[in-house]
Amino acid sequence: MLVTLKQIMNLCEAKRCAVGSFNTPNLESVMAVISAAEELDVPVIIQHAEVHEELMPIGIIGPIMIEMAKRAKVPVCVHLDHGENLDYVCRALDLGFTSVMYDGSVLPFEENLANTKMVVAFAKQTGASVEAEIGCMGKRENGSGSVGNGLDPDKVYTNPEQARIFVEETGIDALACSFGTTHGVYLTKPKLDFSVVENVRKEVNIPVVMHGGSGVSEEDFRKAITSGVRKINYYTYMAMAGGGIIAEKLCLGSALTEQECKGESSLAEGKSNKPVMYHDIVSWGTQAMKENCKKAMILFAMKEM
Questions:
Q1: How far are the Cα atoms of 19, 43, 62, 183, 226 from residue 13, in angstroms, in the given order?
Q2: Mind listing the pLDDT tens digit for each residue in 36-70?
Q3: Domain limits of the chain?
């Protein structure tokens, strides 16, 4: 069933847990995430990031995400992740996304505030929820901008007083809070400051969002949720799980020949090895992503494995 971010956040607040928000830049990842959520009977967020536009246009994957969310047996929010361009945010709303994130965190505070107000006004026209961000999480997707990699904490951590002003003036539904996580693969162990989350929650009456969820320890996930995080973005390790199983099955320790690895069937030569079909690769990757997602979902729901 298709729901908004705010509806899922209300549920997480009541249960004092978090929901997983998974980037789904292709059909296989959409299928993996929703299937995992249905199997565990938990709500979930599927999201499309603006940085993935070249990989998969929102005009193609967006309607697929929405249709599959409607058919799901669990609550599913269709969310835009890190929309940095106001026109792109509006495209997501026009497609029927039930939640959008406007990311003006690299802009001066006042400009971020003004743009976010516009996004909230746009979203009200369709009934969608809005997430926004203040603070800095470093470079997108590569993990090279974390505090653990040498950035000054005072320049990246979310300021609780600024957060209060921002939330009061914009009327957003969720706030992405910077407390030491970053996007992509961590090059060094992240230095997470949970007091930032706690202090932000004292100042604002909305859920806090944790970006850069892949690679964080189970203990730190639990601490973050206890501190007030209610939405956790997760993609890198899910994608790595899908890619890893394919790499393992294709030519790494397998009985396949070099010709077969290149897609050249050996059946005509009378060999018994079965050729690898593209649908085999899709199946391997989808199942591996699903299993990785399930582990994350169980952890975010504060359940025991």
A1: 10, 13, 28, 25, 11
A2: 999 999 999 999 999 999 999 999 999 999 999 99
A3: 2-247+290-300
What is the C-alpha to C-alpha distance for residues 134 and 257, in angstroms, rounded to an integer? 52
Beta-bridge mates of residue 175: 132, 208
Question: Rg of the Cα trace of the chain?
Answer: 20
The question of whether 81 is a catalytic residue gets the answer yes
Identify the CATH assignment for 2-247+290-300 out of 3.20.20.70, 3.40.800.20, 2.60.40.10, 3.40.50.2000. Answer: 3.20.20.70
Instruction: Give me the catalytic one of 41, 81, 87, 193.
Output: 81
**For residues 142 and 222, what is the distance between their CA atoms, to the nearest angstrom?**
24
pTM score: 0.87
CA distances for 88 relative to 116, 143, 183, 193, 219, angstroms: 13, 25, 21, 32, 36
